[in-house]
Specification:
DUF1453 domain-containing protein; transmembrane; transmembrane helix; membrane; 154 residues; single chain; 3-stranded antiparallel beta sheet
């Protein structure tokens, strides 16, 4: 893994942590699919989702990565603290449970990457972007479902 990829991953992790643990308004829930769709499209366009030397194994690892990302993303979305300000704005903020789930998410991704490397299926940028898209989409879906149950400000 080259230094540029490590720096990009570190920046993405830092960005996600800041956004998840600083209180922020939950914006335009009708467009929650846009960022995941862009990430998935860019990931697919980059290629490398299926390793030619091990096509079945690489598809299984990709599917496991997507499923794990979606699952942990959904749990993070369900664990975030949600509230509505007096002006009606919906806010979300991470908490200790979200931090633990974020760690679980990273550990799962690293474990799958190590497993892939052990069997000759290297992690490619495309696969990382597709799993990140799944993770973000799951959080958005969980937050949207929960936000509909929070009463509007009076």
């Amino acid at each position: 893994m080259d230094i540029a990829r490590v720096l990009v991953i570190a920046l993405v992790v830092a960005f996600v942590l800041v956004r998840r643990f600083g209180g922020r308004p939950v914006k335009d829930q009708d467009r929650l699919w846009v960022l995941p769709a862009v990430l998935a499209a860019v990931g697919a366009a980059q290629g490398g989702l299926v390793a030619p030397a091990h096509p079945v194994l690489s598809v299984v690892l990709l599917a496991a990565g997507i499923a794990a990302a979606f699952g942990t993303g959904h749990l993070i979305g369900r664990a975030m603290t949600l509230w509505r300000e007096p002006d009606g704005t919906l806010w979300a903020k991470g908490n200790r449970t979200v931090l633990a789930l974020f760690g679980l998410s990273l550990a799962t991704r690293v474990a799958l990457a190590l497993l892939g490397a052990a069997v000759g299926v290297p992690v490619r940028n495309g696969a990382l972007l597709v799993t990140l898209a799944s993770w973000i989409l799951a959080q958005g879906l969980a937050l949207t479902a929960r936000s509909r149950r929070i009463p509007a400000a009076v």
